[in-house]
């Protein structure tokens, strides 16, 4: 009888195995890793990610929805734009730890310290920054942007 009551009391509490496996399963997609890396130092709207990652809006949105569903992303609406950011900065540490376990060097991991403005992006962040600074995608740190490319086959950043 006590066992039955104990089970009823814990029905709504997700197990550590279930919750952890949900997060790891979502991060098991190489493009979602790219999104996490891109969002590690800055919030971004879908149009910004579209210009940065060279993928269609619908494709990006599907992956953002999966990351958001397990609680890895938060959103903020500003007019017609929805901005995404990591809900917990430790997510990027999890990705870095996975890269180390896979045999990569920490120096291979892309450094994303500078907020990048994308010329083709129409979000207010990019339009204002480009107008004020005159900087575009071409004259920003393209080496950093190129390190975001992740190939699944050989685990190279």
Task: Identify the notable features of this structure and list them briefly.
single chain, 157 residues, mainly alpha, Arc Repressor Mutant, subunit A, 3-stranded antiparallel sheet, 8 helices, globular, disordered C terminus
Structural commentary:
This protein is mainly α and 157 residues long. It has a single domain, classed as Arc Repressor Mutant, subunit A, CATH 1.10.10. The protein is built from 8 helices and 3 strands, in the order αααβααββααα. It has helices at residues 2-9, 16-26, 30-38, 46-53, 57-69, 90-101, 124-133, 142-147; strands at 44-45, 73-78, 81-86. Strands 1-3-2 form a 3-stranded antiparallel sheet. The longest helix has 13 residues, at 57-69. The chain starts with a helix and ends in a 10-residue tail after the last helix. Residues 135-157 have low confidence and may be disordered.
Q: Which homologous superfamily in CATH is the superfamily?
A: Winged helix-like DNA-binding domain superfamily/Winged helix DNA-binding domain
Number of domain units = 1
Return the average pLDDT rounded to an integer.
76
pLDDT < 50 stretches: 135-157
Strand content: 5-15%
- From the alpha-carbon coordinates, what is the Rg to the nearest angstrom? 19 Å
């Amino acid at each position: 009888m006590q066992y039955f009551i104990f089970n009823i009391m814990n029905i709504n509490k997700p197990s550590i195995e279930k919750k952890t496996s949900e997060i790891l399963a979502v991060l098991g997609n190489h493009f979602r890793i790219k999104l996490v890396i891109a969002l590690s130092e800055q919030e971004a709207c879908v149009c910004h990610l579209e210009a940065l990652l060279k993928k269609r809006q619908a494709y990006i949105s599907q992956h953002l929805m999966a990351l958001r569903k397990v609680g890895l992303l938060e959103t903020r609406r500003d007019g017609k734009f929805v901005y995404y950011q990591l809900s917990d900065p430790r997510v990027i540490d999890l990705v870095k730890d996975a890269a180390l376990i896979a045999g990569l060097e920490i120096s291979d991991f892309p450094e994303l310290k500078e907020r990048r403005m994308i010329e083709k992006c129409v979000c207010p962040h990019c339009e204002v920054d480009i107008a004020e600074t005159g900087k575009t995608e071409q004259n920003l740190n393209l080496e950093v942007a190129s390190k975001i490319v992740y190939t699944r086959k050989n685990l190279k950043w």
